[in-house]
Amino acid sequence: MQEEHSEKVACGCEITHEDWEMIICRCEEVTRGAIINAINHGATTVEEIKRETRAGMGLCQSKTCFRAIQKILSDVTGQPIANITPYTSRPPVRPMSVQELASLVDQEVEN
């Protein structure tokens, strides 16, 4: 029989130790347990989970983990997945014009 994690889950779900330690966000190495802890401590949106755990802040910018985070949030809080909105996207630090981007392609072709 598999051991259950000692921390209670808000939804009363039975979660094995292996599930608790499962990496959800590979870029930031955030586990399912860390996400559930964030929810147990008051995180009710993907944005709040992101702030609490850094899940979704890695190189992929949540392209690989968003759906898993959304599913965990739905399971623990009972919210329908359709009601869980994605995090706020942020534009690049410094906007670039199309002309600047095109000049980069021209430079690559010349080299």
Describe the fold and architecture:
The chain has a two-stranded antiparallel sheet. Mean pLDDT is 82; it is low at 1-6. The relative contact order is 0.14. It is mostly helical. Strand 1 (23-25) and strand 2 (30-31) form a beta hairpin. It has one domain (17-110): Arc Repressor Mutant, subunit A, CATH 1.10.10.1100. The protein is built from 5 helices and 2 strands, in the order αββαααα. The protein is elongated.
**Given the structure, what is the number of helices?**
5
Rg over CA atoms, rounded to whole Å, is 19 Å
Structural class: mainly alpha
CATH class: Mainly Alpha
| Oligomer class | single chain
Helix fraction by DSSP (H/I, runs of at least 4): 40-55%
Spatial arrangement of strands, main beta sheet: 1-2
**Span of the ends, CA to CA:** 62 Å
H/E series: HEEHHHH
Which range does the strand content fall in? under 5%
Output mean pLDDT. Answer: 82
Overall 3D form:
elongated
CATH architecture descriptor name: Orthogonal Bundle
* Biggest sheet details: 2 strands, antiparallel
Let me know the number of strands.
2
Query: How many domains is the backbone divided into?
Result: 1
Low-confidence stretches: 1-6
The CATH topology turns out to be Arc Repressor Mutant, subunit A
Can you tell me the CATH superfamily? BFD-like [2Fe-2S]-binding domain
Task: Please specify the SSE layout and strand pairing.
Layout: H1 17-20, E1 23-25, E2 30-31, H2 32-40, H3 46-53, H4 66-77, H5 98-110
